[in-house]
Amino acid sequence: MKTFYSARHLAHGDRLELLSGKLVAAFEVPQRAEIVSAAIEEIKLGPVLPPQPHSLATAQRIHHPRYLEFLSQAWGEWAVAGHT
């Protein structure tokens, strides 16, 4: 199995996330990426590789247009609602 990891994962340290329409304490914490990466390397599950950049065209081949539209607008709407 290939695993993609970057030190940029350590920047994913939000306090809250949205779950079933409610803000809850975040499940994703920077330490989780380190723990998972170390476990994968320890049991030799497969190579741990750096992520590669992909174009919007790649995302458009994989995801529904409405989902991509949602992603392009979500942060702006969240900020306007005062949640930043």
Structure description:
43% of the residues lie in helices and 14% in strands. It is α+β, with helices and mostly antiparallel strands. A hairpin with a 2-residue loop joins strand 2 and strand 3.
Task: Count the beta strands.
Answer: 4
Major β-sheet annotation? 2 strands, parallel
Task: Give helix % range.
Answer: 40-55%
Spatial strand sequence of the major β-sheet:
1-4
Distance between the termini: 36 Å
Percent strand equals 5-15%
Instruction: Characterize the overall form.
Output: flat
Cα-atom radius of gyration = 16 Å
Q: Kindly state the mean pLDDT as a whole number? A: 89
Low-confidence parts: none
Tally of helical runs: 3
What are the SSEs and their pairings?
Blueprint: E1 3-4, E2 16-19, E3 22-25, H1 30-42, E4 48-49, H2 56-62, H3 65-80
